[in-house]
Specification:
mainly beta, 6% helix, structural constituent of ribosome, Transl_B-barrel_sf, Ribosomal_uL3_bac/org-type
Length: 255
């Protein structure tokens, strides 16, 4: 693996948020992500599709819940039926064969991830809640317009309201990405990834996680193209991997 290599990502289910305290007594807000049975379903190459990518599947689904073309897609690849599919573009040296299992050990504690999901929908909201506007004057000369956005600039010239003008409208329920999310803990026994802070979406929603673009992982510590478990390894006997929080007490004050 080098700096130009790009690994595949994983599909995870957002389980919710909690908090932990490290060895220094520092509180860390945690979001728990469940990477449920990720597996490579399809391989796309430059020769056939014009780009290199891996289609990854997550979870399980009953055959009666799929249409005939969808069911034929899984049967032609010889993989189990998956609940969710997602395509990740990768570099040529990171391609994996169909059927390869992707576990949470694909990532290592201490690295940074980019997490993409659908944000929580908040319905139709005004400009103050949606964009953080200060509002109109609260006392004199603002009759019944305290929370309005004011003029939008559309008189004779230019005679219209420009696109992307910040106004009232639908808030949330759209694709959002949180960059540089720190991995605190990896649990191979339950396929859980503990990350610091919040990620988009409600509990039970699917999110897509992959190596951070702004803070790439250490090439000497990251398994490439993924982690291959030994055939005789039992995931139930594996211990959780926790990130190093440093050897210096953050609360120590020099007198």
């Amino acid at each position: 693996m080098d700096r130009t290599s790009r690994r595949t990502g994983l599909i995870a289910v957002k389980c919710g948020m909690t908090a932990v305290w490290d060895k220094w007594g520092r509180r860390i807000p945690i979001t728990v992500l469940w990477a449920d049975d990720n597996q490579v379903v399809q391989v796309k190459t430059v020769d056939h599709e014009g780009f290199n990518a891996l289609q990854v599947g997550c979870g399980q689904k009953k055959p009666k819940q799929l249409s005939i073309p969808e069911l034929g897609h899984f049967r032609s690849k010889g993989v189990p039926i998956k609940r969710k599919l997602k395509e990740f573009q990768v570099s040529e040296d990171a391609l994996l064969p169909v059927g390869t299992a992707l576990t949470v050990r694909h990532f290592v504690p201490g690295q940074f991830l980019d997490v993409t999901g659908v944000s929580i929908g908040k319905g139709f909201q005004g400009p103050m809640k949606r964009w953080g506007f200060a509002g109109m004057p609260a006392s004199h000369g603002a009759s019944l317009s305290h929370r309005s956005h004011g003029a939008t600039g559309g008189r004779k010239s230019p005679g219209k309201v420009f696109k992307n003008k910040k106004m009232a409208g639908q808030m949330g329920n759209r694709k959002a990405t949180v960059f540089c999310v720190w991995v605190y803990k990896v649990e191979p026994q339950r396929d859980l990834i503990w990350v610091k802070g919040q990620v988009p979406g409600c509990k039970g929603n699917f999110v897509y996680i992959r190596d951070s673009w702004n803070k790439p992982p250490d090439v000497s510590l990251t398994p490439f193209p993924t982690h291959f478990a030994p055939p005789d390894e039992d995931p139930a006997t594996l211990e959780a991997l926790i990130a190093d929080v440093g050897a210096e007490d953050p609360f120590q004050v020099d007198e």
